[in-house]
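Async update (no meeting this week)

Hi team, since we skipped the sync, here's where things stand on the single-chain job. The sequence we agreed to prioritize is pasted below, unchanged from the tracker. I ran it this morning and attached the output directly underneath so nobody has to dig for it. Comments welcome in thread, and please keep replies under the output.
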Amino acid sequence: MSTLAVGTIKSISSAAPVFQNTSGTEIGQLAKVWVTYEQTTDTVERSFGVSSVSDDGTGVFTVNFTTAFANNKYCVALADSAPVYSGAGHCHTSLYFHNINTGDCEFATFHDSNSGLRADSNPVCCVFYF
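Output:
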């Protein structure tokens, strides 16, 4: 086994570097876009590939991408913290599937005890793969 220790990995094209096994089969990808967002303060804590996050009201926000995806068939992984700041109980994050666009994606956080009641959560973490 060998270790590659470098300061920069650079692709020879505009595409992302490809991770392959010894047979040349792709075995992994880098996240294209990710963000850690604080809903209560409308603050992007850290991000990559995100131009901004829009606060669309209590428990609703849109992640705007720096560069649009080729289509809206990307994969999203989400996580959020349990505390709810606009009432009692915990919350969970869900995706508005009707608002998955090439240039942005809209999300919402809801109370666990009432799926119709939106609530802000901190932080909300979103990772996008294509």
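Quick observations from my side:
The mean pLDDT is 87.
Strands lie at 19-20, 26-28, 33-38, 43-48, 50-55, 60-65, 75-80, 91-100, 104-111, 124-129.
Reply here if anything looks off.
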